[in-house]
Design goal:
mainly alpha; Fumarase C, Chain A, domain 2; Ribonucleotide Reductase Protein R1, domain 1; two-stranded parallel sheet; 4 strands; lyase; cytoplasm; Fumarase/histidase_N; Arg_succ_lyase_C
């Protein structure tokens, strides 16, 4: 039987709470399509546990599990109604099984059910985001390995600063993305915990086996406090914060590629560019502009989530119905942006001659000359004064004679009292300047090769960790299928 009006929803909500003008406003059924499959998995694991613990009869469990198969085959669009996907699936099961279908909800609440479904789905999305970030790191590493000796201008405040290499520049972003991955992996560890069995927030008197359900769903552990398990959404905040940080890294890379495209220092592939609708000569780095914009979207989603969560009392509040959409939107956008950035980097062309010609612009080797004098024994500030005055007397990079004349004025002695003319010439040359900067993490080819080796090792380890996480989820899904098959 169903409710008095023949509607199974009436059994779940009772007639008093089944209608009214606010029903549509309260419903999240359409938005819950994303967690439809997650809810089915959570339902199955819960029913298997209920039967294993003799909380419900095996034949009832079999009927419910068979009904869930029917619901899955029909799809989300076939759900007839309800405040959310969880209620709608339960109503569909009751329609198929009859009143015994309601036993599916024994020893749980929608509170712990919803929290579990969100975690179940989001962890897959986080692994997808990690895959996209890993692909970007691989693209940065491989492109960098081709340009360890490609000298280019480096900037601070968008002003020519010091020469560097394309490899050094790209690896600066690879290292940042590696930290983004580390944050996402830490978030995944805390995300991958099971709230199921906490019920509304105060646990349950039934003899449930929370560990069994956790294992069947591929979670690493169960959450210890039932109130915390049902109420908290800090896993959304942590995941979205990590995604937003990653989006900001992507935005910086995109901005640099846009600027470099403008200067002719890089040419993006046609696949990652577009032309004007009216100016046929143009080639615009549109994809990078959109990648840059994703950071703003992610910051907005994080702000929306944090504002929703701020000041909520324990334990469950309906505000939380609107919390998880922020994380889901951001994980999709940021993952796509990372994938686009990876493709753009892998297919870009770096014109070596143009880069080398610009590497010395703005007397970018000035610091190298000052360092040379300091290494010869002059106080660095004195050396800085000599080089600064030489720059002021020159329209571009000063020659050796100008530097010697300034040294005579400032120091009262020739520059060559301290260094040789050949050494100064080498310090003024961008390529030689880069080669001299061989400290750990520096742009010298040997230092870059060491960074490349570290980056490759880290990339391999992180890829293995993500693969292991996926394998664990796959194995759990297979085990759940086997358990369900033993009933159906």
């Amino acid at each position: 039987m169903t409710g008095e009006d023949g509607d199974s929803e009436g059994v779940i909500r009772r007639d008093r709470f089944s209608g009214g003008p606010a029903r549509g406003f309260m419903s999240s059924l359409a938005a819950d399509e994303r967690i439809f499959e997650a809810d089915l998995a959570v339902d199955r694991a819960h029913v298997v546990m209920l039967a294993a613990q003799d909380i419900i009869e095996s034949d009832v469990a079999a009927d419910i599990l068979a009904a869930l198969d029917e619901v899955e085959a029909a799809g989300h669009d076939a759900l007839s109604g309800g405040e959310d996907v969880h209620e709608a699936i339960e109503a569909a099961v009751i329609d198929i099984v009859g009143p015994d279908g309601g036993k599916m909800h024994t020893a749980r609440s929608r509170n712990d059910e919803v929290a579990t479904c969100i975690r179940y789905r989001l962890r897959d999305d986080v692994l997808d985001a990690l895959d996209a970030a890993l692909a970007l790191r691989e693209s940065l590493v491989e492109t960098a390995s081709e340009h360890t000796e490609t000298v280019m201008p480096g900037y601070t405040h968008l002003q020519p600063a010091q020469p560097t290499t394309v490899a050094h520049f790209l690896l600066s972003y690879e290292r940042a993305v590696a930290r983004d991955c580390a944050r996402l992996m830490c978030a995944y560890e805390r995300l991958n915990q099971s709230p199921l069995g906490s019920a509304a927030f105060a646990g349950t008197p039934f003899d449930v086996n929370r560990e069994l359900v956790s294992d069947l769903l591929g979670f690493d552990s169960v959450m210890e406090n039932s109130m915390d398990a049902s109420a908290t959404r800090d896993f959304l905040a942590e995941t979205l914060s990590a995604l937003t940080t990653h989006a900001i890294t992507l935005s910086g890379l995109a901005e640099d590629l846009v600027i470099f495209s403008n200067k002719g220092f890089v040419e993006l592939s046609d696949d990652y560019s577009s032309t004007s609708s009216i100016m046929p000569q143009k080639k615009n780095p549109d994809t990078m502009e959109l990648v840059r914009a994703v950071a703003g979207d992610a910051v907005g989603e994080l702000t929306g989530l944090m504002t929703t969560l701020k000041g909520l009392p324990r334990a469950y509040n309906r505000d939380l119905q609107r919390a998880h959409k922020h994380a889901f939107r951001a994980v999709d956008d940021v993952s796509e942006a990372a994938a686009v950035a990876a493709g753009a980097v892998a297919s870009a062309t770096w014109p070596e001659d143009e880069l080398a010609a610009a590497a010395g612009d703005g007397f970018s080797t000035a610091t190298g000359v000052a360092d040379l004098l300091a290494m010869a024994g002059l106080p660095f500030r004195t050396a800085h004064e000599v080089v600064a005055e030489a720059a002021a007397r020159s329209s571009g990079t000063p020659d050796v004679a100008t530097l010697d004349a300034v040294a005579t004025d400032v120091l009262g002695e020739s520059l060559f009292t301290h260094v040789t003319a050949d050494a100064v010439e080498a310090a003024l040359d961008p390529t030689e300047s880069v080669a001299s900067r061989d400290s750990v993490g520096g742009p010298a080819p040997a230092a870059v090769e060491a960074t490349l080796s570290t980056a490759r090792d880290d990339l391999s380890a992180d890829a293995a960790a993500v693969a292991d996480a996926r394998d664990t989820l796959t194995a759990a899904a297979d085990e759940l299928d086997e358990e369900v098959s033993s009933y159906v």
